[in-house]
Amino acid sequence: MTGPAPMAADPSTVNATRFRAAHEADWARLDRLITRIEKRSVRALADDDLLALPSLYRTTLSSLSVARATSLDRALVAYLEQLGTRAYFQIYGVQTSPWRQLARFLAHGWPQAVRDLWRETLASLLLGIAATIAGYVVVSRDPSWFFAIIPVGMAGGRDPGASAAFLRGTLYGHGAGGARQDGLATFAAYLFSHNAQLAIFSFALGFAFAAPTALLVAYNGLTLGAFQAVFAAKGLGWNVAAWLMIHGTTELFAITLSGAAGFRIGLAIAFPGRRTRMESATAAGRSAAVAMAGTVVMLIVAGMLEGIGRQLVDDDATRAGIGLAVLAFWLVYFYWPRRAGGVGHGA
After folding, report:
1. pLDDT tier at 190 (50, 70, 90 boundaries)?
2. N or C, which end of the chain is more exposed by having fewer CB within 10 Å?
3. CA-CA-CA-CA torsion sign (93, 99, 102, 103)
4. Helix 211-233 crosses helix 237-270 at what angle (to 10 degrees)?
5. What is the pLDDT of residues 5-42, one digit of tens each?
6. pLDDT 10s digits, 132-182
7. What is the DSSP string of 11-73?
């Protein structure tokens, strides 16, 4: 059967004036309906309008396809794109409350995003461990390397020249006097700020083929190893490890995940496969961004744990026990097998 080809099949034959005249009424009606839903709710529509809504949406998408293919007025294309987007979210979007969206994120979205990054997380973890060992060995053999690794503000006097009594005092602020308490609080605040910035930059700089991310993860490991070496040289290796564990298991896990998210984006850009680099980065960024959003929660939890460790808990075994218990919680929360669906997995 022969006859005139569909409009979208031969864009060159489309006349802009006739095109507008033929479809503008449908666009205007869809716009009115969507505006009514946005201002009130879908219940504000009559039955006829509800039945017409999907048809009007498909007509608008068809018009948008033709407008793009025939290079019609850019303003018209922009209008149709905006109208199509608004209609999509009202027709197909799941209308949920902020609390339900938060529950969906915590119950499924965040853990799934972290599980999807398991290869990158393993790579980030191994790099951090290797850098920590390197920092420890280098500073143990030559303490002068400490000053090449640790900024003065971050060290706060905790350097190879410090006495064992001074270093011990920095670990046990509770009941140790106002000066020590204030000094430890200042150091803790600086450390939290430093680690939060490091986590954010590890993710944000992943687009540069993940090279800055790898450097930041390695640098964090070097600083950790350097500090451990200083305390271990004074016989306080276990003590500082326990002090770090109470909040460090959460904080370092967050940094590891941030590095993993940066690696995911960087590798997607470096090796896009059959996609364009932009498409590959966009796809990788979806899950990576969800995982990164959750690390903010982890950093807040780490800050609270650090406050408890500094002010309320002075016993090393208790500090280590809390740190290990929290680490176990994160591992179960992220990696314990769970069924797909449940909270937040709507249509």
Report:
1. low
2. N
3. negative
4. 170
5. 444 444 444 567 788 888 889 999 999 988 888 787 77
6. 999 999 999 999 999 999 887 777 788 999 999 999 888 886 444 444 455
7. GGG--HHHHHHHHHHHHHHHHHHHHHHHHS-GGGS-HHHHHHHHHHHHHHHHHHHHHHHTT--
Q: Distances from the Cα of 12 to the Cαs of 59, 66, 79, 312, 324, in angstroms?
A: 19, 10, 21, 76, 68
Judge whether 76 and 21 are in contact, CB under 8 Å: no
- Say how far apart CA 192 and CA 310 lie, in whole Å: 13
Backbone CA torsion sign across 236, 240, 241, 246: positive
Distance of CA 68 to the CA centre of its chain: 34
Phi, psi of 158 (to 5 degrees): -90, 75
Q: How many CA atoms lie within 13 A of 3 on its CB side?
A: 3
CA–CA distance, 257 with 290 (Å, rounded to integer) = 11
Residue-wise DSSP of 270-320 = H--TTS-HHHHHHHHHHHHHHHHHHHHHHHHHHHHHHHHHHHT---HHHHH
Question: Can you tell me the distance from the alpha carbon of 250 to that of 129, in angstroms, rounded to the nearest whole number?
Answer: 15
Of the candidates 200, 202, 195, which has an alpha carbon nearest to the alpha carbon of residue 216? 202
Mapping DSSP to helix (H, G, I), strand (E, B) and coil, where does residue 177 land?
coil
Task: Work out the number of other CB atoms within 10 angstroms of the CB of residue 100.
Answer: 14
Instruction: Quote the CA–CA distance of 65 and 97 in Å, as a whole number.
Output: 33
SS3 content of the chain, % helix, strand, coil (to 5): 80, 0, 20
What's the DSSP call for residue 234? Answer: T
| Per-residue pLDDT at 344 exceeds 80 | no
Residue 85, Cβ density class (10 Å: 0-12 exposed, 13-18 middle, ≥19 buried): exposed
- Predicted structure pTM score: 0.68
